[in-house]
Amino acid sequence: MGQTAKEYLAATLAAFHAKDAHQPEFLQAIDEFFATIEDYVAENPEIIEKDLLSLITEPERLIQFRVPWMDDDNHWRVNRGYRVQFSSALGPYKGGLRFHPTVNLSILKFLGFEQIFKNSLTGLPIGGGKGGSDFDPKGKSDAEIMRFCQSFMTELFRHIGPNLDVPAGDIGVGGREVAYLYGQYKRLREFDAGVLTGKPLTFGGSLVRTEATGYGLVYIVQHLLNDRSDSFAGKKVHVSGSGNVATYAIEKLQQLGAHVYTASDSSGYIYDPEGIDLDLLKEIKEVKRERIERYAEQRSSATYHAGKRVWDDTHLFEIALPCATQNEILKAQAENLVKIGVKIVAEGANMPSNIDAVDLFHENQIAYLPGKAANAGGVAISALEMSQNSERLHWSFEEVDQKLEEIMLHIYETCRDTAKHYGHEGNYQLGANIAGLEKVASAVLAQGLV
């Protein structure tokens, strides 16, 4: 007698824990994923017969390289560069580059694994990948960042292409970095706008790309509220982070009538009872690139909480949008959200809530929209940027924004309906994981042992 779905999932997980015991973020991501797909595996015995999950959970290719560069004091410096090409079952590898001191293979494998199913949920023909470096752009001059990006691309260019692998930005990689990376790619190969997304508008970038992840996050929550005959009007919302995702989530929330009281960075968070002053936040974080405490120094109504997380705040609010980084909501923070009476948690960051926190959300009937569904707006617009590059077209802001909202509606309805089909109505995490897997698994089975 063959294995049951439960036995197969446990055995497959145990094998990965044995092989990758030194990669905690990656193991956390697959633990969360495998815990939700038993019903799907039970309905599809070929998953077990062909050991399909071992195939899908193993990256197709891992690339690691050194990145030598010279700082402004003429000192030689070396960082590590990576690209994890995880799955090309649905299309070319697609996923961002992250420049941050914490970058390592575990984090990039977790991000690449999540990216497979996030990209699948968009309905667009893109596979999953991720990359980056342990380089820290904070405190570096434009010249240093340019030299680093040129050195990084001098190795990466041989592994990417518009029909192979299309990187984008992520933490530490914005329009400036993408432009430097693209310039070096063009110098080494040719002008091919489709090889990177998140480019400036002057050479192939798409309108709405900067806003996309934040806007998309708000749109998917708006669709959930619409299902409940509700809206954002008058809602009290807490947001963590102060990068693109958080900033443009706040912008869209305020446009829709919500009240947003918080923002944060790695040093702490600010609480503003009069509501976040978006212009001031943009000036501090986007123009001056300063720490979030400067907001409180310039706005008398705000208080700064050094070394604290937004989710430790005890003011009453209804909707939580974690937009900073992985594992910012642990069990203690989740217990605080339950106590406050939060009704919705939607993830703008990747895996910001750990498994204990997510379990508490489910136990307390908090609607939980996981990152692979809720923050898919960024990669969706990246894929639309690829389409515009292929067609040599440039769509209007309104046209791209409308497509973004339609994609987020499709993702929401797919997660909702899939969860309902498997008898777990309201479990958007389960719906996202099964719906994302279903499409990828079908493609992998059809393509064979590759």
Kindly describe this structure.
The structure is a single chain. With 450 residues, this protein is α/β, with parallel strands linked by helices. The chain folds into 3 domains: 5-57, no CATH class; 61-192, 3-Layer(aba) Sandwich (Rossmann fold), CATH 3.40.50; 212-374, NAD(P)-binding Rossmann-like Domain (Rossmann fold). The protein has 18 helices and 13 strands. It has helices at 5-19, 24-34, 38-43, 46-49, 52-57, 105-122, 142-156, 175-188, 212-227, 244-255, 278-287, 293-298, 331-340, 355-363, 371-374, 377-391, 397-421, 428-447; strands spanning 61-70, 76-87, 93-99, 128-133, 165-169, 236-239, 259-260, 262-265, 268-271, 303-306, 319-321, 344-346, 367-369. The strands form 3 sheets. The chain has a 5-stranded mixed sheet, sandwiched between helices. Helix 1 (5-19) runs antiparallel to helix 2, helix 7 crosses helix 8 and helix 16 (377-391) crosses helix 17.
Q: Can you count the helices?
A: 18
Query: Which parts are unreliable, with pLDDT below 50 for 5 consecutive residues or more?
Result: none
CATH architecture of the largest domain: 3-Layer(aba) Sandwich
The amount of helix comes to: 40-55%
Q: Could you give a short description of this structure?
A:
The chain has 450 residues and is an alpha/beta fold.
